[in-house]
Write a structure and sequence with these properties.
Largest sheet: none
Structural class: mainly alpha
Number of helices: 3
Distance between the termini: 53 Å
Order of helices and strands: HHH
Radius of gyration: 23 Å
Shape: elongated
Number of domains: 1
Strand content: under 5%
Length: 80
C-alpha cells in the first residue's frame, strides 16, 4: 500500500511539474507501481495475505470470547 501511495504522489508531482520530480524520467516515477504489483503478487502467492487475515480473525474471536467470559463472570477462576 505504501508503494501505491508513493506512486500516486510522484505521479501527481510529475504531472504538475512540481519540484525535482518534474525532471525525472517516467520510468522512475512509475517504478513504485511496479513494486506494488510485485509485492501484491508475492503476498498472494506466499499466503501472507491469508495468514494476516486469519490472525485478525483469531484475535477478534479471542477478544470476543474474553469479553463474553467477563460478562458472565467466569473469566477468573478461584481456587476452592
Amino acid at each position: 500500500m505504501y508503494f501505491l501511495g508513493l506512486g500516486l504522489v510522484l505521479l501527481a508531482m510529475k504531472y504538475l511539474e512540481y519540484g525535482p520530480v518534474a525532471a525525472w524520467s517516467w520510468w522512475i516515477v512509475l517504478a513504485p507501481f511496479a513494486l506494488a504489483v510485485a509485492w501484491w503478487s508475492w503476498a498472494d502467492s506466499s499466503g501472507y495475505t491469508k495468514r494476516k487475515a486469519m490472525e485478525r480473525e483469531n484475535a477478534r474471536r479471542d477478544e470476543r470470547i474474553e469479553r463474553n467470559k467477563a460478562a458472565l463472570g467466569t473469566s477468573v477462576r478461584k481456587r476452592r
